[in-house]
Amino acid sequence: MPELPEVETVMRGLMPVMAGQKINRASINREGLRWPFPERFAKRLKGARVQGMQRRAKYILMALDTEETLLVHLGMSGKVTIDESGAQPPAKHDHVVLDMENGVRILFNDPRRFGALDLLDSANLDSHKLLKSLGPEPLGNAFNPEYFAARLKGRKSPVKTTLLDQKIVAGLGNIYVCEALWRAGIAPQSSSAALDPAHISSLVTHIRDVLTEAIAAGGSSLKDYRQANGALGYFQHSFATYGREGAPCPKPDCDGGIIRIVQSGRSSFYCPVCQQQA
DNA sequence: CTACCATCCTGGTTGC
DNA sequence: TGCAACCAGGATGGTA
């Protein structure tokens, strides 16, 4: 579920209730998720104060006053719940529970367990295995047409696949790649190397725009995704292609319909009429 | 370096 | 209504 806009939204929800607060108690209800939790996980969290937090790609990084940083990755099915009452009993798949000094309880839930929690050395965040190979942030200045063109050059795989590669640009997932390609009018199976400069700068612009709009909407709620405060995101109502197989293309004056194809085992939704093959 | 594929899991939906 | 098959927002790690 969570791509960059959803992770950003969850982080923004956690910030006001966690920043500046000490972790009074950490309950670890299983050994790990995607990977085992770090050694003495609960002990290292207990008593630590959350100094601040930032998002990198699809990761939330919470800086603690112990020179360690708590990394949170929601994977496919991860959710975070803020319980203001502080007494909500952990439910099924609530694997980690943090009780903050302000009385708020934070519950990390992840049925499929593709998510991850880890503790990193705050002085060497970039050397962590999950962070060291990440490409630039799509909303930052380092992701620009020049950089993107250089990374597309000589790449034989389809542009859809390239955009999902976190080493090229970090934070996009299946949904927002489909949406950005539709906005840019580029077919997902276009060869990466075949994109011309106009395609490339259009794609950069539309990637930025769709992510920015989705963040403003609180992310997209598919299945039961919610913001950390329990509110539903509403960007899913703005999807042009994702999950809309058989529906008319929403582009004005386009008489095409959205179709679904499979690329590298993932669904791609697009309009074969207005999205040109480069 | 690039490309391809299996894999980690649960749960919701679809189809017989 | 039961049950099996299939599908899902991610990303690693192995192999070629």
Structural class: alpha+beta
- SSE series: HEHEEEEEEEHHHHEE
Query: Which CATH architecture of the largest domain would you pick?
Result: Orthogonal Bundle
Q: How many β-strand stretches? A: 10
Total helices: the number is 6
User: What does the radius of gyration come to?
Assistant: 20 Å
Strand line-up in the sheet with most strands: 1-6-7-5
Find the CATH topology of the largest domain.
Helicase, Ruva Protein, domain 3
Q: What's the overall average pLDDT, rounded? A: 93
Q: What share of residues are in beta strands?
A: 15-25%
Q: Number of domains in the coordinates?
A: 2
Gross morphology is elongated
- Characterize the biggest β-sheet: 4 strands, antiparallel
User: In percent, how helical is the residue content?
Assistant: 10-25%
Task: Name the poorly predicted regions.
Answer: none
Structure in a nutshell:
With 278 residues, the protein is α+β, with helices and mostly antiparallel strands. It contains 6 helices and 10 strands; from the N terminus they run H-E-H-E-E-E-E-E-E-E-H-H-H-H-E-E.
